[in-house]
Amino acid sequence: MVYRKSPVVGKIKTMIFGAGGMLGTELCRVFPDAVKLKHNDVDIRDKEAVLESISKAEPDVVINAAAYTAVDACEDNQELAFEVNGKAPGHMAQGCSITGARLIHYSTDYIFDGSKKQYLETDATNPINVYGHSKLMGENEIIKKMDDFRIIRTSWLFGSHGKNFVDTMLKLSGQMDTVKVVNDQFGKPTYAADLAWKTKELIGHPPGIYHITNEGVCSWYEFASAIITNVKPCSSDEFPCKAKRPKYSVLANTKTTPMRHWKDALAEYLNKLKFEVTA
User: Fold this and answer.
1) Which residues contact 229 (CB under 8 A, 6 or more apart)?
2) Counting beta carbons within 10 angstroms of the beta carbon of residue 1, is it exposed (0 to 12), middle (13 to 18) or buried (19 or more)?
3) pTM
């Protein structure tokens, strides 16, 4: 039986799936009173477990920050990718539909094929790797099962509490004389902390799909050059990966106010890392 809550008034009760990841950790700072579910707390592939978790908590807002984001590994573990990135968001959407909660879900720039210089929220999707296909499936499952959703597509996420490009560059820079980075793939780096705070704002926006990144377009090489000095450009052909990447995956935000430039966000993150090392 489906029931609907009265419109949310006052304090919003929030539930976060994937609370232990990079973005999830930042979301926990923004929503300190949220019901926080980490990987070991619930298997999001288990439909009944997801439905029970949402039913028991009775949240006003469910935020899904859980995902299988290892792009190359998705090529070898397709079943896992589609279970976690594709079907699990559908389970959450069903739970939200039953209880009347809103759903915030994060998707990716990799649902596009890279044939355009930038992508609007309304542009046709055409993923070129398993990760992109699995994330697009997640979007479609949500849209099929509920109306009160906000799907946030983002890109090139970096921050604390998880493997990311910035930390990888810093590590390689100390291990190698020269670090090669591709200069023919373009996108928008996004700071997890900024995305988490923006998420709070988007709860009050109309349902739909949003492109949320830090501002500024760059190549992976340009991004690396802002992090380390011993970097050298190379082509994607010189750095083959199992999963094909889109050449352009620039997400244009047409629905809400822009976030700060990625260089400003990066400077803050690098300063934070320095403070943690010297503390």
Assistant:
1) 173
2) exposed
3) 0.93
CATH 3.40.50.720 applies to domain 14-160+188-216+249-260: yes
Measured CA to CA, the distance from residue 169 to residue 78 in angstroms comes to: 28
Question: What tokens does 10 get?
Answer: 């006052």
Closest residue by Cα to residue 131 from 245, 248, 247, 16: 245
119 is catalytic: no
CA distance 61 to 101: 5
Distance CA 14, CA 88 (A): 18
Distance of alpha carbon 242 from alpha carbon 72, whole angstroms? 5
- For 224-241, the pLDDT digits (tens) are 999 999 999 999 999 889
Of the candidates 68, 106, 119, 131, the residue annotated as catalytic is 131
Cα–Cα nearest to 23, from 211, 185, 155: 155
Structure tokens at 45: 């592939």
Dihedral pair phi/psi, residue 82, rounded to 5°: -75, -30
Q: Which of 210, 184, 204 is nearest to 105 (CA)?
A: 210
Render pLDDT for 74-105 as a digit per residue (tens, 0 to 9).
999 999 999 999 999 999 999 999 999 999 99
Sorted by where each begins, the domain ranges of the chain are 14-160+188-216+249-260
